[in-house]
Specification:
It holds the Pfam family Ribosomal_L12. With 122 residues, the chain is α+β, with helices and mostly antiparallel strands. It contains six helices and three strands; from the N terminus they run αααβααβαβ. It is elongated.
């Protein structure tokens, strides 16, 4: 019989790609669903396996006093037409950009705040 502790150490050391390959093998050859395999592997990793957030959303909470300037910046940042950018600003709170890096989100937020908007990075 296999050494269970050694097997556990190997499972904890798997990369995401290797976990996916393992899940595929377990499903194809043994009929075990991948979700069950992923739960076992993730529970072995313990609390140290906390993922750092890499994608951020820039949320326009309020257009502020000078909405026209905010509309222009939203138009430039998103590539929307003038009408669509105005609708986005008027419909706040709305996401201006989604899934961007932290640096890009901070840059966008700074531009919008400079124009007088109330912005949040989520």
């Amino acid at each position: 019989m296999a050494d269970v502790k050694a097997l556990a150490e190997q499972l904890v050391g798997l990369t995401v790609k290797e976990v996916q390959e393992l899940a595929d093998v377990l499903k194809a050859e043994y009929g075990i669903e991948p979700a069950a395999a992923a739960v076992v592997v993730s529970s072995e990793a313990g609390p140290a396996a906390v993922e750092e957030k890499t994608a951020f959303n820039v949320v326009l909470k309020n257009g502020g006093a000078s909405k026209l300037n905010v509309v222009k910046i939203v138009k430039d940042l998103t590539g929307l037409g003038l009408k669509e950018a105005k609708e986005l600003v008027d419909g706040a709170p709305k996401n201006v950009k989604e899934g961007v890096s932290k640096a890009e989100a901070e840059d966008i937020a700074a531009k919008l705040k400079e124009a007088g908007a109330d912005v949040e990075i989520a």
